[in-house]
Design goal:
Two copies of one chain form a homodimer. The first copy, chain A, is built from twelve helices and five strands. Chain A is an alpha/beta fold. Chains A and B meet through helix 1, helix 4, helix 9, helix 10 and helix 12 of A and helix 1, helix 4, helix 9, helix 10 and helix 12 of B.
């Protein structure tokens, strides 16, 4: 066998292996069905440096950023290469619920995605504490409920995932954030329950992680995940999706 | 409620959340049972900068390194906090099968772990190609079979995981590696089948990943995974474990 033949044989083996991997993992029980289009929505944690000129490109790292959205998407795409999945990201750094609502028509409803995963809330408390925003836990809950209601009226078949806002107790995060933050967490859970959305328990996960390594291993400023933190988030997101 | 009481209440909520997460995920079908002790063994990809003075410490990032071993271990520990799992790493940069065999008594058999996950092979081909090692695919297979036979005779109840050696087609990896490499891959699969070990298809995974982003996104030198590459490996390892 000459080298050209040998390389061709390698590719055939590879393709067969890929098919086997696909058949194994395309679980019908997953929230992400065959041919699904998935939209990640949120703030800087979701944004994670994504490139705006590439936003219309599905499944590209530069369009999905360097965070949990890219890691989760790429892992599912590798698991299920034959399932024609498409992932997009519309997270925008610094955004809070009112800003998400203001761009909902363009960045969510018009896109008509099958699965919508939303992680929003840490700026709502951060900017409130530093005096740049006058929202409260009550307005967070009210605005989230209104946004989800509007979303589900426009997209009644969308699979909605509400991700729990989270913080690590280090960096910018002070003890003074905590009582309010607990109310934001509770509100996000209530929103998920109200609309029978799938809840992704990121804070439960980030309460457990510091028993292994200190909070700043997972997010040095307490808010933006490290590579380990983003990998952990992708894992929990995928586990929740099934 | 004063602030101290509020913080205490937060911790109680957290503990309840953690218990719920644990109950969900402590699947009896997992290869890693309650109270299991897991050993990662291999070369630099497993080593990933682990600290030698900390090697006796279970579940510590500095003892587990910055690679897939730490990501996989930490994700499982966060999922199953009540399951008393312990993870150790004995990967050593640059090692090939003969060196793994030479330190097997001290670094594996004496430790009596419940689950043993081995990833070895890329140096066996790399050092052969650069003329520093006279091993062949045949000697790789023979030495792996002998090592696994010795391991299972000493530890008949160990759950054995054989990880497929892999490469990305970039960096140090040249086309001239490929025909031989395919034989190393086939040998690792044969070793897994011979001993009914669990096979972790890392090359199948890394054949799929470059359809999303170029090979150097996953491992800039073709051998040592990036953060995205290591996260993908941890995901596939955990999916294989169940």
């Amino acid at each position: 066998m000459n080298r050209r033949t040998f390389i061709a044989a390698t590719w055939i083996t590879t393709a067969a292996g890929t098919r086997a991997l696909s058949a194994e993992s395309a679980q019908t029980g997953s929230l992400v069905k065959r041919n699904a289009v998935v939209l990640f929505q949120g703030d800087s944690i979701t944004d994670a440096g994504r490139g705006r000129p590439d936003a219309a490109e599905a499944n590209q790292q530069k369009a999905l950023g360097n965070g949990y959205a890219w890691l989760a998407a790429s892992q599912l795409l590798v698991d299920r290469p034959g399932d024609n999945l498409k992932f997009y990201n519309r997270g925008v750094s610094g955004h809070k619920v009112p800003q998400l609502a203001a761009r909902s028509q363009k960045d969510c409803l018009d896109l008509k995605r099958d699965v919508l995963s939303i992680l929003i809330g840490v700026n709502d408390i951060w900017h409130r504490i530093n005096g740049k925003f006058d929202g409260t836990p009550a307005s967070y809950e009210r605005d989230c409920l209104a946004l989800m209601d509007q979303t589900l009226k426009a997209l009644p078949d969308v699979k909605l995932m509400i991700c729990e806002p989270f913080l690590l107790r280090c960096g910018a995060v002070k003890d003074s954030w905590l009582p309010d933050f607990d109310a934001y967490r509770a509100a996000s859970r209530k929103v998920a329950e109200t609309f029978k959305a799938t809840f992704v328990p990121f804070q439960t996960m980030f309460d457990e992680a510091p028993k292994l390594e200190p909070p700043d291993h997972w997010a040095s400023d307490g808010v933006h995940p490290s590579a380990s933190g983003a990998s952990l988030m992708a894992h929990t997101w995928l586990k929740t999706v099934g």
